[in-house]
Amino acid sequence: MIISSSAIVLSKLKYRDNDLIIKLFVRELGLTSFIVRGGLKRIKQIIFNSFHY
């Protein structure tokens, strides 16, 4: 499922070598965290894996 929405980035944390964990506040979903695979690499495509609190 693809959702398009605006969000506020609350924090980011380095995870493993090239990944990030990002905490976002989304109006529709509330507080949400995402793992951004390859977030520290210079690539065009970033894959988000979300998990909710």
Task: Describe the fold and architecture.
The protein is 0% helix and 58% strand. With 53 residues, it is mainly beta. It has one domain. Strands 1-2-3-4 form a four-stranded antiparallel β-sheet, with no helix packed on it. A hairpin with a 3-residue loop joins strand 1 (7-15) and strand 2. It starts with 6 loop residues before the first strand and ends with a strand. The mean pLDDT is 77.
Keywords:
53 residues, mainly beta, four-stranded antiparallel beta sheet, 4 strands, 58% strand, globular
Strand content: over 45%
Radius of gyration: 11 Å
Shape: globular
Mean pLDDT: 77
Lateral strand order in the biggest sheet: 1-2-3-4
User: What's the total count of β strands?
Assistant: 4
Percent helix, as a range, is under 10%
Output the helix-strand order.
Answer: EEEE
Model regions low in confidence, pLDDT < 50 over at least 5 residues = none
Number of helices: 0
Alpha-carbon distance between the two ends: 19 Å
Sketch the major β-sheet.
Answer: 4 strands, antiparallel
Structural class: mainly beta
How many domain units?
Answer: 1
